[in-house]
Amino acid sequence: MENQMNNPGQSHMGGNAGNTASDSLMDKAASMFGNMNLNNIPDSLKQYGNTAATKVKNMSTTQKVIGGALLAAGAWYLSNRSKSDYKTNSAAHAARRSNSYDPS
Fold first, then answer.
1. Which intervals of the chain are annotated as region Disordered (predicted)?
2. pTM, entire model
3. DSSP secondary-structure letter at 33?
4. If DSSP states are collapsed to H, E and C, what string results for 40-99?
5. How confident is the model at residue 99 (pLDDT cuts 50, 70, 90)?
């Protein structure tokens, strides 16, 4: 079975008929990575990418699932922490700008 990304003559509606959000995301990803020139990537970065891919490939499915869950949990934590920090700081700045702010 051929990959839809490598066959420009084939419709993207294949197995996802009616799922325009998924199609749109795949189209965006294809256009973003389709314009990349791999000759501009430094050799050290290519070597690091190959090493990382080999190490991930050698992991068990359980390790991959747990690692992915930990990455998602960490990203969720950092995004929520930055939102709460922003809300706290914006309230503090608003209080400083108002006339009713009493530093004592």
1. 1-23, 84-104
2. 0.42
3. H
4. HCCHHHHHHHHHHHHHHHCCCHHHHHHHHHHHHHHHHHHHHHHHHHHHHHHHHHHHHHCC
5. low
